């Protein structure tokens, strides 16, 4: 295959990854706390022996959009939303993970957990547990949790130690390395943060990427036919 074919293949690979990311965004347009993703293309220049260098497309870096979503009022006492910067911190088998999805439920032991069973951690990195016998739970804007008017825990807001290291690990969970406390966020009880995906824009982007991919595939098909024609001509 000639250089043009290799260059097009690298572009096709990146476009395929982008299509998968956009499809995932669309699928999570109504997932509370979801953050849309994009892909960053970069130029990869390589020289092969004495041949001229080739400039190829490399689409291997994901970009997470941290734009805030709107709030949906639920009235649930354990539905929490964040206004401003910061993430909730939950404990998973793979280690602490960051999330903006504030859907929590108290377990049999009173511990607040995500729908997947991950414990919610407080400002000190310990699991949050609602004391037995509590009838009413209130959450202050500063993260103070009170039961029947008596404080019993303080939720922490966290940020990745390196914003560029924030990595989506599945669903609404992110790996940010060693998280550090955030100071600019406020908490809201009885509401959930919406996904920040704009379905109309994502579908438009999907169409654009699909057309670009089909254009590249058409070029590869023509190149393949051209090479086959040359082989037939030389073989005849």
Describe this protein's structure.
- The chain is α+β, with helices and mostly antiparallel strands.
- It has two domains: 3-66 and 197-235; 71-193, no CATH class.
- Helix content is 26%, strand content 31%.
- The protein is built from two helices and 17 strands.
- The strands form seven sheets. A four-stranded antiparallel sheet has the order 5-6-14-13, with no helix packed on it. A three-stranded antiparallel sheet has the order 9-10-11, with no helix packed on it.
- The longest helix is centred in the last third of the chain and has 37 residues, at 199-235.
> Could you tell me how far the N terminus lies from the C terminus, measured between alpha carbons in angstroms?
21 Å
The helical percent reads: 25-40%
| Spans where pLDDT lies below 50 across 5 or more residues | none
Structural class: alpha+beta
Please give the domain count: 2
Order of helices and strands: HEEEEEEEEEEEEEEEEEH
Name the shape in a single word.
Answer: elongated
Helix count, DSSP H or I runs of 4 or more residues: 2
What would the average pLDDT be, to the nearest integer? 85
Number of strands: 17
Radius of gyration from the CA trace? Answer: 24 Å
Strand order of the largest sheet: 5-6-14-13
**How is the biggest beta sheet arranged?**
4 strands, antiparallel
Strand content: 25-35%
């Amino acid at each position: 295959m000639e250089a043009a074919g290799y260059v097009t293949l690298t572009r096709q690979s990146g476009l395929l990854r982008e299509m998968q990311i956009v499809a995932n965004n669309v699928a999570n347009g109504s997932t509370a706390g979801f953050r849309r993703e994009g892909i960053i293309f970069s130029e990869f220049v390589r020289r092969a022996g004495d041949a001229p260098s080739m400039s190829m497309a490399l689409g291997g870096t994901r970009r997470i959009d941290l734009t805030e979503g709107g709030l949906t009022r639920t009235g649930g006492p354990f539905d929490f939303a964040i206004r401003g910067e910061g993430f909730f911190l939950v404990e998973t088998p793979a280690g602490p993970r960051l999330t903006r999805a504030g859907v929590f439920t108290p377990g049999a032991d009173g511990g607040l957990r995500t729908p997947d069973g991950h414990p919610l951690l407080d400002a000190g990195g310990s699991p949050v547990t609602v004391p037995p016998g509590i009838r009413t739970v209130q959450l202050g804007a500063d993260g103070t949790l009170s039961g029947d008017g008596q404080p019993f825990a303080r939720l922490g807001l966290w940020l990745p130690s390196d914003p560029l290291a924030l990595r989506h690990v599945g669903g609404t969970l992110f790996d940010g390395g060693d998280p550090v406390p955030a100071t600019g966020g406020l908490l809201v009880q009885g509401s959930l943060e919406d996904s920040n995906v704009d379905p109309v824009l994502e579908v438009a982007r999907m169409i654009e990427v699909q057309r670009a991919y089909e254009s590249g595939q058409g070029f590869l098909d023509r190149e393949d036919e051209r090479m086959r024609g040359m082989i037939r001509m030389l073989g005849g």
